[in-house]
Each structure stands twice: as C-alpha cells, then as structure tokens.
Write a structure and sequence with these properties.
- It contains six helices and no strands.
- By secondary structure, it is an all-alpha fold.
- The two termini are 22 Å apart.
- The protein binds zinc ion (ZN).
Length: 92
Amino acid sequence: MNELELYRQLRLWLDPIGLCAYLGRRTQHGKRCDHTFRYTEEYIAKYAVEETQAAEVERILIEFGGNCDCEVGLNLCSRLSELGAIADMENE
Ligand SMILES: [Zn+2]
C-alpha cells in the first residue's frame, strides 16, 4: 500500500490527527515515552471505532516510520495532515 492508502485505512479506524494530538500531549511532546505504543493503545480503547485492532493500527504507524508513541506524536503529524488534505481533495 502507498501512504495515501495507508492513511485511508487508518482513518477508517480512528482520527489520525486526533491520535497525533493525543500522543503529543500524553508523551509531553516526546519527553515521556517508554518507547512502546501504550498511549496509542489507550487512544484506541477510548476513541477508535469499536473492534479496531491495535496491532493493525501499529503496523500502519510503523510503515509510516513511527515505532512508538513519541515517534508518532513528533514525526508523523505534519505528514498525516498533508495526507488528510490530499484525501479530502480526492473525495470532492
Ligand atoms: Zn518513544
């Protein structure tokens, strides 16, 4: 899958920008992270579509280069915003 397809898959389960914001806050912008996906899993449990598989979400985040909560929060937000804008334009 290319990045746009990965983004679309992710968005079926949760709000990618919401996840980024949540992780930024929970890891205090990367200062507090045990380099797992514990806060990602917390976000999924609270906000994702029911029956979302955390392992599947994490597989996609890793493909984007985010290997733990702080990397997703710090590195992926601008890219995910761009992909969101592209995806929206293509839907028009
Ligand atoms: Zn980390």
